[in-house]
């Protein structure tokens, strides 16, 4: 069995973790890891990729991520989490490899795109030794968690590397095809990274014989891995507004005020780093438009409105019958699992695999969630630009703009300014994408991944309303109780 030298291994000493809010905190833990260790690998063959890529993928729900229980997990719960992670990651990696290979050869030959392909091949090679076995001991779980840490680190800069690859290859692939491919690929990547990070967080907070710090104060959020079960959207909005406001003041010399109304004390279960990224992107646009329209005296209004917990008979189900309602799941297309974009280059427009009908909890419409409206008086979006706000706008670059961006300049498409240089996508490397126009489409991908969405209403000459809707995981206690009832 081959071995490969990798720089990132989890330390064997006790790690104490309290409320891991973002992937950056996990990275801080990884930085203490010892060097010089080796991960077991297995050569990845075309047959392996073909077989794994033929396996059906299922949509991931927040309920899947919390179903193993609240940390600290028992030994059996931790092993179950590891085996659940192992059961779904190899196929997802193989789908990404096959998707990249379906691109035109001259595009895949670009060194940046080729680098991403090599990273996925490496990660799959570290998972294959585990693929045909069950993780049965804590020693095996520790070694498997090292593989997860390596996976997260290996793919930490995927977005920025892909962006530069497609910039360089823009002559050989149409902007529309680039947008379709990136939207699908980056959505799929959200799930892959999240699955790995969730098990890492559960591992760090559940090591046996370890006195783990946990929040018992009623005012402190309770985490299950990377999910905050008591997430306050108002707190996230306030934090993001302060950071974006400081950058806005640095750039323009002024900053708009922000008013939070609705129900600022509302809590629900979601992933803080996802919400931070989305809110940051939306506030960047609102702040910039407000200042550039000289309307900074008009406050930006943020309204937080909890989504009602509807009973099944109260839900707006349209023409669906009762069985369709009961079996409704998150759409695989929203999570980038259908591989339709890359199939366009092979002449096959059918998905590479059917959706799976596995024992995965659907996201109920009655799941508690929130709608956040961000209203500004920044003059609105011009009709010419409104139809392109969800495009990866770098695809419209001319040669001068592309050259400036690749060399580190701030030249950008669609009037994007220096505020684009700031993002908080949880270690995704988006902060290095100044001027590439990734903010809104990637923000929408995060919102839609678990059944939410973003809607924009613009009054040209007046202002813009943006509606962000997110579905939560429900009351976590109910999820755990349901699991216990099934076990009985």
From TrEMBL:
Q: Which SMART domains has this protein been placed in?
A: HATPase_c
InterPro entries reported for this sequence = AK/P_DHK_N_sf (IPR036784), BCDHK/PDK_N (IPR018955), BCKD/PDK (IPR039028), HATPase_C_sf (IPR036890), HATPase_dom (IPR003594)
Q: Which part of the chain is the Histidine kinase/HSP90-like ATPase domain?
A: 270-474
Q: Which GO terms describe its molecular function?
A: ATP binding; pyruvate dehydrogenase (acetyl-transferring) kinase activity
Alphabetically list the UniProt keywords.
ATP-binding, Kinase, Mitochondrion, Nucleotide-binding, Phosphoprotein, Transferase
Q: Which GO terms of the cellular component aspect does the record hold? A: mitochondrial matrix
Is the keyword Cell membrane assigned to this protein? Answer: no
Cellular localization per UniProt: Mitochondrion matrix
Note the PANTHER family from the entry.
[3-METHYL-2-OXOBUTANOATE DEHYDROGENASE [LIPOAMIDE]] KINASE, MITOCHONDRIAL, PYRUVATE DEHYDROGENASE KINASE
Q: What is its EC number?
A: 2.7.11.-
Q: Which family does it belong to?
A: Belongs to the PDK/BCKDK protein kinase family.
Q: What class of enzyme is it?
A: transferase
- The entry's protein name is Protein-serine/threonine kinase
Q: What is the lineage of its organism?
A: Eukaryota, Fungi, Dikarya, Ascomycota, Pezizomycotina
Among the GO biological process terms of this entry, one is:
regulation of glucose metabolic process
